[in-house]
Amino acid sequence: MKHIARKRFGQHFLRDGGIIDAIVQAIAPQPGQRMVEIGPGLAALTQPLVERLGHLTVIELDRDLAQRLRSHGQLTVIESDVLKVDFSQIEAHPSQAPGKWRVVGNLPYNISTPILFHLLDHVDCIEDQHFMLQKEVIDRMVASPCTAAYGRLSVMLQWRYAMEDVLFVPPESFDPPPRVDSAVVRMVPRTDPAAVDVRLLSELVQVAFSQRRKIMRHTLGRWLEARGFAGHFDVQRRAEEVPVAEYTALALQVA
User: Per the CB 3.0–4.6 Å rule, which of 4, 88, 129, 178 could disulfide with 103?
Assistant: First the structure.
């Protein structure tokens, strides 16, 4: 029986064999590696991955799809909302080698950003991440300062990951086709990130970008004053003009 994509889960099933091959090549799975796939759906990416890995852990919210996936002997199926999964507590299969988890997936567009921030909390147990996302989101993730796409998502993720837009994916690669272009991003955790409090950095950056078209004097400037900040930070700039390193340095000073 054909599975009908469910709008409430933001389902768009990948069907283009050429794109699937290109994604697998970008991920480069090796036998025995620990890998988790988020939202395997109809297993278009799952099957070529597990053929190379030997075993794969998948996280699927859709009950019907999870049931179908359980019939595959080489999959460990976690039926759950990914936002409720503690990646540091996922148990490896005996055939999987020791090490950190590699995380992959075609992320639902309606909750892609919450998933990225959720994984930020578990980055210490992750080797790398490869995700298919709305191209506009990836443009924001990898954006440079002084560009329209540069914002809170850019700062929070670039602080912790080295990222690369590795593949363009057109709408016709899916069933049903989404109304937007997609892309695949590679995210590799940095080995020497600034040791900042992620909650503090998030609040700081959110305040800075709350009125991104105006200078930060009346937003971040007031936030710093309220905290009794006595250091120097130029608030006579727009938030998009400030590099990631300056935001993290400020968060260290404020703390």
Answer: 129
Q: Tell me, rounded to whole angstroms, the distance of Cα 139 from its chain centroid.
A: 13
Q: What is the pTM of this model?
A: 0.89
Is there a contact between 223 and 251 (Cβ–Cβ < 8 Å)?
Answer: no
Tens of pLDDT along 179-233?
889 899 999 999 999 999 999 999 999 999 999 889 999 999 999 999 999 899 9
- 176 and 11 Cβ atoms separated by less than 8 Å: no
pLDDT by residue (tens digit) across 60-81?
Answer: 998 888 899 988 889 999 999 9
In angstroms, rounded to a whole number, what is the distance separating the alpha carbons of residues 111 and 8? 11
Sign of CA dihedral 54, 57, 60, 64: positive
Give the model's pLDDT for residue 168: 93
Tell me the DSSP string of the chain.
Answer: -PPPPPGGGT--EE--HHHHHHHHHHH---TT--EEEE--TTSTTHHHHHHHHS-EEEEE--HHHHHHHTTSTTEEEEES-GGG--GGGPPPPTTSPSSPEEEEEE--GGGHHHHHHHHHTTGGGEEEEEEEEEHHHHHHHTPPTTSTT-SHHHHHHHHHEEEEEEEEE-GGGEESPPSS-EEEEEEEE-SS-----HHHHHHHHHHHGGGTTSBGGGTHHHHHHHTT--S----SSBGGGS-HHHHHHHHHHH-
Calpha distance 196→26 (Å, rounded): 31
